[in-house]
Amino acid sequence: MLHHPTRGAALCLALATCAGLLTACGSSPQATATVPATPRPSSLATASPEVLAAEYLPGLSAHLRFPLADGSAPLIVLVPGGGWASADPTGLIPLATLLTDAGSTTALITYSTTGDGSTFPEAVDDVACAVRWSASQARSHGHTPTRIIVLGHSAGGHLAALVTFSGEEFGRDCPDPPVDIDGLIGIAGIYDTDPFRAFMSPWMGVSPTEHAETWLRADPIEWLRRGANTPKGLRALLLHGDEDQSVPLAQTTALQEALATAGFEADVTVLAGLDHLEIFQAPNAGPPILSWMANWPTP
């Protein structure tokens, strides 16, 4: 279900330049965009004492927040954005705190980036391992996941969608066992990689023309089209701001259409007046996420 004001004309987004990339406007699928890093409003060190901080893989950290009530709880793994060049999760602390206060276990993670010299598929493998590790830790601390949801903003939305739609194709060497992912929350994510080829090339590390199959493997919508790995009964919530000048709304509507074609319904909420960095702030993203969680069908 798509929630946004009726539009009589096609959406036109002016996409800013980044590192010499072209600026584009219009509905052309070849538009490129900047993907700003998540800002740092606070330090993870200031988080509440109900936080387990650890490395889920050598050099890669995760911070789990447990709800005050004992017993089983939903697990939400939050994947930060940063244009595949950084992965600072501190900007998502308020949203994680809100979700934990509402009764979910949350995991704030980081992952390998081009800033570390890594390329595809390392970050995808990392996120897959983080989800598995978070589920194992939640169980061992008395909060067995009732459902597992992966949430990602911007480039983090791309990674979250890849891990969700690909089954066990990524993270094959993870130390923790595979888990079933029940839900995806995409916040201004990148799901169709074609318009972002120029921007993503440093992270991909290979030419899209000479290594077309590798690029297809990095495309979440392509995984949906192939269909074999997407979890049965998957639920999706997609959020986007209508003032986003970095990732066009067309990315969200394209994923909604691909999910529908694959037999999955996505709840889509377009929030008026919000840009790329405002959309994931707790007062903005929190209410639609909590409403979506509250309406989860009873098994």
In short:
This protein has 299 residues and is an alpha/beta fold. The chain has helices spanning 93-101, 122-140, 155-165, 197-204, 212-217, 220-226, 249-261, 282-294; strands at 2-3, 51-57, 60-65, 73-79, 105-109, 145-153, 183-187, 235-241, 266-271. The chain has one domain: Rossmann fold.
Domains counted in the coordinates: how many? Answer: 1
**Helix share of residues?**
25-40%
How are the strands ordered across the major sheet?
Answer: 1-9-8-7-6-4-5-3-2
Form type: globular
Largest sheet: 9 strands, mixed
The CATH class: Alpha Beta
The pLDDT mean sits at: 86
> SSE string, helix = H, strand = E?
EEEEHEHEHEHHHEHEH
> What is the CATH superfamily label?
Alpha/Beta hydrolase fold, catalytic domain
Characterization of this structure:
By secondary structure, the chain is an alpha/beta fold. The protein has a single domain, classed as Alpha/Beta hydrolase fold, catalytic domain (Rossmann fold, 3-Layer(aba) Sandwich), CATH 3.40.50.1820. It is built from eight helices and nine strands. It has helices at 93-101, 122-140, 155-165, 197-204, 212-217, 220-226, 249-261, 282-294, and strands at 2-3, 51-57, 60-65, 73-79, 105-109, 145-153, 183-187, 235-241, 266-271. Strands 1-9-8-7-6-4-5-3-2 form a nine-stranded mixed β-sheet, with helices on both faces. Helix 3 (155-165) runs parallel beside helix 6. The longest helix is centred in the middle third of the chain and has 19 residues, at 122-140. The chain is globular and about 50 Å long. It starts with a strand and ends in a 5-residue tail after the last helix. The model is unreliable at 1-34 and 40-49 (pLDDT under 50).
